[in-house]
Design a protein that fits this description.
This protein has about 60 residues and is mainly alpha-helical. The chain is built from two helices and no strands.
Length: about 60
Amino acid sequence: MKKLELKDLGVQEMNATEMSNVDGGLLGINLGPLLAGITGLLSDTLAYVSTQLSIVFKVIGNL
């Protein structure tokens, strides 16, 4: 069986940045703002949880 190489068929590889910049990105949707929003949400959530845990541990420590 002959091994087919994608480069021989004219297929080029693209990294994630290139894919998001190509005419709307994956499935016609630019995922950059969505990913930035998810990252921000996770960052804010982790900061909130960290603050709350700090308060709980201080209260327990003062008992």
